[in-house]
Structure formats: C-alpha cells, structure tokens
Amino acid sequence: MAVVTKVKSRSGGKVRAGFEGGQMPLKQRLPKFGFTSRKSLVSAEVRLAELAKVSGDVVDLNSLKAANVITKNIEFVKVVLSGEINKAVTVKGLRVTKGAKAAIEAAGGKIEE
C-alpha cells in the first residue's frame, strides 16, 4: 500500500507588503507631494490674550517660554490681534501686527524693537 505524503514544495510562499505581481506598485505610481518649511518649525503666533499669562511688564521671547506660552524650540514670534489685553506691557524683540500694536498702545503699553 502506498503512503500518501503531503506536498511541501509549494507551502509558505509569501510576497512583501505592497507587491503587485510585477506591476508598478501604487506607492511608486503616485507622485510625492507637500513641503514643510524649516522656518515654520521654529516660528509661532501669539495672541494678545496670551500676553496676560506672562508675569511682569516686559514680554520677550524668554518670558513667553518661561510662562509656557511657546515651546522651547521657538525662535521667531509674532503677536497677533486676537482677544483683549487690559494691562500695560512692553513688547521687546517680537514682531507685532498693526492691529495688535494699536491694541497694546491703547492699553498703555509700548513696543520696542
């Protein structure tokens, strides 16, 4: 009587993820897209309302970092008009929009470059 054995020569075959049988895979058919500026990774906008979180009268890059308004890797900050400010502050070394400048000066503050 003949003993029937299982054929093993065809078992275990696998193809890698994304393989499409020799046709150009979807990952390679589609173009690359998008761009992230390196400067955008170290730039931030700060609202007027967030300036109230800073203790003291002088607002600069270091005081914003100390108050946890911006992260430690931020190097460029722009103050934008959003919300209200009701205490007089001196903004040093930060870029300020026209509307924010008017609001800071109306509250009795000033801007120094």
Describe this structure in words.
This protein is α/β, with parallel strands linked by helices and 113 residues long. It has a domain at 41-112: Ribosomal Protein L15, Chain: K, domain 2, CATH 3.100.10.10. It is 17% helix and 18% strand. The chain has helices spanning 26-29, 61-66, 98-106, and strands at 43-47, 58-59, 76-80, 90-92, 95-96, 110-112. Strands 1-3-5 form a 3-stranded parallel β-sheet. A 3-stranded parallel β-sheet has the order 2-4-6. The chain is rod-shaped. The chain starts with 25 loop residues before the first helix and ends with a strand. 12% of the residues are buried. One of its GO terms (molecular function) is rRNA binding. Pfam families: Ribosomal_L27A. Keywords: Ribonucleoprotein, Ribosomal protein, RNA-binding, rRNA-binding. InterPro entries: Ribosomal_uL15/eL18 (IPR021131), Ribosomal_uL15/eL18_sf (IPR036227), Ribosomal_uL15_bac-type (IPR005749), Ribosomal_uL15_CS (IPR001196).
Record the SSE blueprint:
Elements: H1 26-29, E1 43-47, E2 58-59, H2 61-66, E3 76-80, E4 90-92, E5 95-96, H3 98-106, E6 110-112
Parallel strand pairs: 1-3, 2-4, 3-5, 4-6
Q: How many angstroms does the end-to-end distance come to?
A: 99 Å
The helix/strand series, from N terminus to C terminus, equals HEEHEEEHE
Unreliable residue runs: none
Lateral arrangement of strands in the main beta sheet: 1-3-5
Global geometry: rod-shaped
- CATH architecture field of the domain at 41-112: Ribosomal Protein L15, Chain: K, domain 2
Secondary structure category: alpha/beta
Give average pLDDT, whole number: 91
| CATH fold title of the domain at 41-112 | Ribosomal Protein L15, Chain: K, domain 2
Q: Number of helical runs?
A: 3
Compute the CA-based radius of gyration: 30 Å
Helix content estimate? 10-25%
Give the biggest beta sheet: 3 strands, parallel
Number of strands: 6
Strand content: 15-25%
Keywords: Ribonucleoprotein, Ribosomal protein, RNA-binding, rRNA-binding
Domain Large ribosomal subunit protein uL15/eL18: 53-112
Organism: Vibrio ishigakensis
Protein name: 50S ribosomal protein L15
